[in-house]
Design brief:
By secondary structure, the protein is an alpha/beta fold. The protein is about 25% helix and about 25% strand. It has a 5-stranded parallel beta sheet, with helices on one face. A two-stranded antiparallel ribbon has the order 3-4. Helix 3 (about 85-90) links the parallel strand 5 and strand 6.
């Protein structure tokens, strides 16, 4: 089985988590990028516009065709997946995806059909333990 690890990040937290998972599983890690500037205090309002489909975005990512399974590391924005992640998942069946969700406190809605769901609290001293626990499921 070929596994692809993808992440979307605004702050770098999801990149850090994806890289830790990639290192432990000896797998390459790929970013999902979009054409939106998510910085600043207006980011929340932008999120609302893109999440509701009022604005379109372009995303780029490494080819997914060669993978049978995916590990997707994503932040939670207002209890939802970022629009970038939602767009990325349009052509990937959720049952092939392990969602690794990074958040300060929220859980993500709309991911119930994922193969596996792992919640990692940002800035938590238990981050490495959660990752290690998840990695053991591959043994």
């Amino acid at each position: 089985m070929k596994i692809g690890i993808y992440y979307f990040t605004r702050t770098g937290n999801c990149k850090r988590i994806a890289e830790k998972i990639g290192e432990k599983l000896n797998l390459e890690v790929f970013p999902i990028k979009d054409d939106v500037d998510w910085t600043g205090f207006k980011a929340y309002f932008k999120f609302q516009s893109y999440a509701k489909g009022k604005k379109k975005m372009e995303i780029t990512y490494h080819d997914t065709d060669k993978f049978d399974r995916f590990i997707l590391v994503s932040p939670v924005w207002g209890s939802r997946m970022p629009p970038t992640v939602k767009l990325f998942l349009e052509n990937i069946p959720m049952e092939k995806v392990d969602m690794v969700v990074s958040s300060k406190m929220d859980k993500m809605r709309g991911i119930e059909d994922a193969n596996r769901i792992v919640h990692i609290k940002q800035y938590s001293s238990g981050e490495d333990e959660k990752i290690e626990e998840y990695i053991k499921t591959f043994a």
